[in-house]
Amino acid sequence: xxxxxxxxxxxxxxxxxxxxxxxxxxxxxxxxxxxxxxxxxxxxxxxxxxxxxxxxxxxxxxxxxxxxxxxxxxxxxxxxxxxxxxxxxxxxxxxxxxxxxxxxxxxxxxxxxxxxxxxxx
Length: 121
Hints:
Helices cover 81% and strands 0% of the residues. By secondary structure, it is mainly α.
């Protein structure tokens, strides 16, 4: 009789451990299939917007300086190259998740982390 109780409690413990392990795996799994389908598209759109915006800013600054300083086309070429580099760097930061390491992203992350540590009643 004691063996039956021990066996039942061991089986119950095993099911609880399996459930906890499964829940932990879902939470910490790097499996991208668990993400929302729209997250990948949003990330791609953000990366492309970062690259296009940096290129356009470089183009406009280079064009304006060329017009003012009469150095056509050297500053335009220089700033297009700089804008392309800045866009690539921004895309890399977004893809790696470094974009929230500084500035507003960092402040918002700390604020949200504080909300999780001290939930409101």
